[in-house]
Design goal:
transmembrane helix; mainly alpha; transmembrane; cell membrane; membrane; UPF0056 membrane protein
Length: 192
């Protein structure tokens, strides 16, 4: 085992920023108002399973279609870059339609384990040890579960301005991470 606190913290922060569960609180609250109850436990477990499975089989899927991890990481850097721009500027470049029910599917996928999360997981795998990424996924899922369980309390506590500030701070962190990810992996691609 190759546990590294620095890698775990960085991977946790990247996934926290990409998942953006605090930024999704308005969607979660509107879903809760529509259907009454959100299955927090099931949504968290399914999202964790999707993320860990993609961590282990995502690279095989890429190899099957002829894409190496470094190329995917560079593409992931672009996706993370645009997610960061959305968070910092408060604009929406792309967003799926709001889900109509609060079943496992819209909460676990795509709200928690969406395309940005999957891209980030494989991009992190290009740089970090797998066990550190698994720990980061588990830490994020625990946080996601807590947020899903207490979303209305968090909304009242932080208010709209508090949520916006948190979102912008993590947007800047995500932007810096996307630049680092791009720089590291583009060098590896160009030297091949």
């Amino acid at each position: 085992m190759n546990f590294d606190i620095k890698q775990i913290v960085t991977a946790t922060m990247v996934l926290f920023a990409v998942i953006d569960i605090l930024g999704s609180i308005p969607i979660i609250i509107s879903l809760r108002k529509k259907v009454g109850h959100i299955q927090s436990e099931k949504a968290s477990i399914v999202a964790a399973f999707i993320m860990v499975a993609f961590l282990f089989v995502g690279e095989s899927i890429l190899n099957l279609i002829g894409i190496d991890v470094n190329s995917f990481a560079v593409a992931g850097a672009f996706v993370i870059f645009f997610l960061a721009i959305e968070m910092i500027l408060g604009i929406t470049l792309y967003r799926d339609d709001e889900p109509e029910s609060a079943s496992i599917v819209p909460i676990a996928f795509p709200i928690i384990a969406g395309a940005g999360t999957m891209t980030s997981i494989l991009s992190l795998r290009a740089e970090y040890a797998v066990e550190n990424i698994v720990v980061a996924i588990i830490l994020n899922i625990i946080f996601v579960y807590i947020v899903l369980k207490s979303s209305s309390k968090i909304e009242r506590l932080l208010g709209k301005n508090g949520l916006n500030i948190i979102r912008k701070v993590f947007g800047v962190i995500l932007l810096a991470i996307s630049v680092k990810l791009f720089a590291t992996n583009i060098n590896l691609l160009l030297t091949q």
